[in-house]
Design brief:
This protein has helices at residues 17-31, 51-55, 77-98, 109-116, 136-144, 153-162, 187-194, 218-227, 247-253, 264-269, 273-280, 293-304, 307-321, 326-338; strands at residues 3-7, 35-41, 62-66, 103-106, 122-126, 147-150, 169-171, 201-206, 210-211, 214-215, 234-239, 256-259, 284-287. It is of the alpha/beta class and 339 residues long. It is globular, with a radius of gyration of 21 Å.
Length: 339
């Protein structure tokens, strides 16, 4: 394979996790000797840095911007999103007609549906499938794709329930850039920079508060912290609005990193990038079993009571992260689609 053209119908760069995932995968594909083009629409953006600077990636793939109408500041958000998506799709169609690529690639539904109608060989990457019932457009995307890449076994299981005739799918969990989290600051230095206490065990969460308008479990984490018996020994740090490049420093300051899944269905389908970031940063990781704050509080108390176990779990997590890099994910995908 010589060339991949990746379509993304959304704002780029973005502070949302999917933007980093797209950037890192384009970089990883390009590092395997593939010519990569990422095609994105023009959007209003409060991020002033270019993508390589914002994400800390190599400039080894091309980023092309196409025309789109972005009325987000002037009309209701839902209508603005629809106009953005439709006009971006028109530009993508024009791009498809004027350019050649060995393989086209996308993960947003609008781009995938567009590709399904125009006879181009494409790869569909799907994350966190949560549709309550089968949809005709999803069936079409899956049926027409050359391959379907899924982020988790849970996503594959739910897709198989709705579309049992789809056989071209395989799982490739998300990954991490180990070098990005290998920063020179120590735990103590990071706490000084961030004005955090040195004498507390810091329990932290790094990520957004909501996804698709739904709480990501941060409220439950707050409740759990308030319910801890050993709360006086700990500090809760919620990092929900820092730039991408500030994530490693914040993780360096944290002792226990939490993934507060808000519900069973979300836990089944997700492959959270933050999990692999926590691992790369060498954190002891606590994953909530569900939306029960009391149960999460007990887990946190157990670790706060045992600082040596926090260190042991962190070392083990860092070692495990070596098996989950973006380059390894790219190699796995390329091996499957070229076999």
């Amino acid at each position: 394979m010589k060339k991949i053209t990746y379509l993304f119908n959304g704002r780029f760069p973005t502070e949302k996790a999917h933007g980093g995932q797209i950037a890192k995968m384009c970089e990883a594909f390009a590092s395997q000797g593939i010519a990569v083009e990422l095609v994105v629409p023009h959007r209003r953006n409060t991020i002033r840095e270019d993508a390589p600077t914002y994400y800390g990636i190599k400039k080894n793939f091309a980023i092309k911007h196409v025309w789109a109408i972005d009325p987000m500041l002037y009309i209701p958000e839902r209508l603005a999103n629809a106009i953005q998506t439709i006009t971006s799709s028109v530009s993508f169609l024009w791009y498809l007609m004027r350019h050649q690529s060995e393989v086209w690639y996308a993960r947003d539904h609008a781009s995938l549906l567009l590709l399904s109608y125009f006879g181009r060989p494409y790869i569909a990457e799907l994350h966190d499938y949560r549709l309550a019932r089968p949809r005709w457009w999803m069936r079409r995307i899956l049926k027409k794709a050359r391959f379907v890449i899924l982020n988790s076994e849970g996503t594959r299981s739910l897709l198989a329930d709705h579309y049992p005739d789809i056989t071209k799918a395989f799982v490739a969990p998300n990954g991490v850039d180990l070098a990005f989290f290998d920063i020179p600051e120590t735990r103590e230095q990071a706490r000084d920079i961030l004005h955090l206490p040195q004498d507390k065990i810091i329990i932290g969460y790094v990520g957004r508060l909501e996804v698709a308008g739904k709480d990501k479990g941060v409220s439950m984490l707050k409740e759990a912290f308030e319910s801890m018996k050993l709360r006086d020994r700990a500090e809760l740090l919620l990092v929900t609005s820092v730039s991408y490049k500030q994530v490693p420093l914040n993780l360096r300051a944290i002792d226990i990193a939490v993934i507060p899944f808000p519900g069973v269905r979300h836990a089944k389908t997700t492959s959270p990038i933050k999990l692999f970031q926590y691992m790369a940063a060498g954190k002891a990781i606590v994953v909530a079993d569900g939306p029960d704050p009391e149960q999460l509080a007990r887990k946190l108390d157990e670790l706060v009571l045992n600082p040596e176990r926090i260190k042991t779990l962190g070392i083990k997590a860092h070692e495990d992260a070596r098996n989950h890099t973006w380059d390894q994910r790219a190699k796995h995908i390329l091996n499957r689609i070229q076999s």
